[in-house]
Give the backbone structure.
Amino acid sequence: MSQVHDVIILGGGLVGGLTALLLSQGGKQAIVLDASPLLTEDKVLAQHNPRVLALSQATMHLLKTVGVWSCIKRYMPYTAMQVWNQDSYGELFFGKAVEGRPYESQWLGTMVEPSILNLALQQRMQQQIQDYRTGVRVKRVEQTPRGWKVELQSGEILLTQLLIGADGANSFVRDQAGIGLNLLDYKQTAISCAIRTAQPHHHIARQIFLPTGPLAFLPMASLDASQEGYWQSIVWTLPDDYTEEYHSLDDAAFCCLLTESSQHMLGEVLEVHSRATFPLKARQAQMYVKEGLALVGDAAHVIHPLAGQGVNLGCLDAAVLCDCLLKDAERGVWAHLQSLRRYEHLRKRHNDAMMHSMSILGWVQKTQLRPLQMARNMGMQWVAEIDVLRTQFMQQASGVPYLQDTRYQI
């Protein structure tokens, strides 16, 4: 108990793992405490995850930087995005449809199943992180005059100068640190599953706004090479009272309903696998940092999945925090409160803006007020037709501008 470690990270998922690997690359080894078990490659690769993560160009760059990208065994790049509203004119289309495997220069981003990505992260951390523990349960976290004390269920006690909470939306670190949470309940639930369609996706991520909420078709890799290009992961946002009815349908009825609701965007939905539901709530920690403590990823913020940016915001958190910390290390200090507050200032305002813009966009897309419908339609047309606006939109979605002032700039 006498040793005080430089940094302990609770949570070994994408954001926690990326934070540990970025720090390791900068010469700082973290202790990573992950509640999840160690994954088995054969088991992970043998099944479809119902959801995919849309990784932006910035997130892909960060994963390449720490050597995780080469460990990812299955993914599906997307080269275009198409967004439209069922009940109005106006459509946004970015990029270009591609038949066959696209060149990397054509990619807007990549869809990866969470289990596949977690497997790659675990494999890389086993190589790079000296003290990486899985299946760990934490009993208590508290601040002491010497830093933060982490007590494990096993009875082991660890002390650290810096505790990083990367332990998800229901963060134990956040709760133990007494950090409040602002919550916005959308009164919506999303259905996610893997589907096979009659027509290929051509590497286009599609989203249609229905009166009940958005329905997204996201390209995903297939387990069967002969069906490559025909599988998608869907995220179907519905009012809470619709979800139980839709989710309880048998597979044949659900496929028919999905085909009709999607306006046959890719023909008939032929198969559905691994249906799951999750409630939609926006969460924002009232503060991201305290003396010797920082929150990243879902522990700090959760936004509506409307634009698929949640995981990418978390990866930007990791990059900015590590840049601030490593600048401290270069001048002979560690985890100075001023540096932690700089991280909070840079990331909280961006995450706040993204959270509120997604909430407003969702409301505007389903409004029945005629003046707002007209404004919405004209706005989509302007973005679609004006090159400067379209380029700016794509730049923001890429996440690249938010790395420009860090050591990880592209």
Notes: Residues 372-376 have pLDDT under 50 and may be disordered. The first strand starts at residue 4 and ends at 10. The chain has one domain: 4-184+282-403.
